[in-house]
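Why do we care about 3D structure at all? Because function follows from shape, and shape follows, mostly, from sequence. That is the central idea of this module. The next example makes it concrete: a single protein chain, its amino acid sequence, and then its structure expressed as tokens.
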Amino acid sequence: MVATTAATTTKLVVRGITKSYLSDGREHEVLSGVDFEVRSGEIVCIVGPSGTGKSTLLRTIAGLTTADAGEVVVDGTAVAGPAPGCAVVFQDYSRSLLPWLKVEPNVALPLRGKGIPKDEQLRRVRRALADVGLAEAGRRYPWQLSGGMQQRVSIARALASEPELLLMDEPFASVDAQTRSDLEDLVLKIREERGVTVVQVTHDIDESVYLSDRVVALGGTPASVTEIVDVPLPFPRNQHDTKADPRFAQLRTHVLERIRGMSPS
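And the structure:
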């Protein structure tokens, strides 16, 4: 088991990221000079108003989208395509899982064609499913599972590649409140047991404070970093005690003010 406190080494550097889109014959700048760093073993959430470019930023970090300016550096190497040692979990689990494949083959998809022996693939798949609480679901089809369980399968698929950097784009937006809480706790468990660095986009301010070592708040048009908020709440965290801590409410209010462009109270 790894320590829950973030290490001091830098895993990810986002430097001067600027991105524009062409719409209605005009260029619209979405991101402008976005800068922040993530240390190894941290959980960092990115928050901001709808349309701020949070998902665009995450896709740029993953190497799935090219920035107009700036760079992303992972472990000292500039990203120029899908980042090695990185896995991505998207919001829409129903579209990422193949309904004609059972759970185990779905989870094994990123391991195919990489020269990994089949017995090692199976070991990784079964470990990942156990980590997300689905050890007994490997022979079922995705459509036989609840929405929350399907998202757990998507997370297991990402974990099967044994990433050092896990990127998640609003992964809990489509599930009910109780399932969201369970999945938040799952992220904390994964970081604790695997030591993976997590960068998660979320529109839920409570979630960002509950999960994070630090919160990156985006705001403005085009968006830039308005503040990087340290979250000094102790680990381990739980849904009752952590959210009942008066500091939790203070941090939540502070983050909300920052993404709305207000001066901190």
